[in-house]
Backbone:
């Protein structure tokens, strides 16, 4: 089940914090609860991805993006992700999530999200996100104009551009494998 109570708590908490720009880092604190666990008694990998929503909502609230989305009647979507899981998040562990927008191209915003257990990074995700309207993806030029931001992206790090390039040659739609 989606963590709606956590979502509302994250949004409420973000509203009480100082504003950020879209390129700043939003830091949020969380805890691994028993309903987050898988059969190995660690946070389920799917739950980790769901928790990332909370970090992106927090950044969107603090950066004023949520108000713009409501005004324009746009939505937020994830259009791709690559992840690294490196440390188990055990029951009742406190962890910190850091969310930042790295930059953008003509269609997508690239978000880096990390989860930290103390000084150790437990998870790193790179997400391709976009704004949508009833017709599909809203161009970043249009969305940044509505947001009132400079449409020039900071240079994307080489590792981000390498992922973009690799994903561009990935076949779509994928071949549908037959039964064995």
Residues:
């Amino acid at each position: 089940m989606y963590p709606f109570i956590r979502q509302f708590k994250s949004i409420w908490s973000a509203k009480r914090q100082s504003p950020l720009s879209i390129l700043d880092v939003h830091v949020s604190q969380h805890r691994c609860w028993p309903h987050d666990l898988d059969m190995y008694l660690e946070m389920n990998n799917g739950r980790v991805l769901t928790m990332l929503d909370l970090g992106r909502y927090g950044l969107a609230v603090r950066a004023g993006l949520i108000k713009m989305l409501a005004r324009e009647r746009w939505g937020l979507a994830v259009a791709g992700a690559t992840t690294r899981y490196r440390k188990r998040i055990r029951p009742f562990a406190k962890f910190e999530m850091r969310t930042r927008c790295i930059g953008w191209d003509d269609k997508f915003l690239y978000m880096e999200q990390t989860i930290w257990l103390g000084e150790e990074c437990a998870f790193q995700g790179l997400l391709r996100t976009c704004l949508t309207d009833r017709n599909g993806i809203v161009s970043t030029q249009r969305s940044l104009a509505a947001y009132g931001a400079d449409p020039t992206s900071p240079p994307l790090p080489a590792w981000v551009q390498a992922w973009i390039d690799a994903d561009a040659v990935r076949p779509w739609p994928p071949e549908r494998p037959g039964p064995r």
Remarks:
- Strands lie at 25-31, 75-85, 94-104, 109-117, 120-133, 136-138.
- The mean pLDDT is 96.
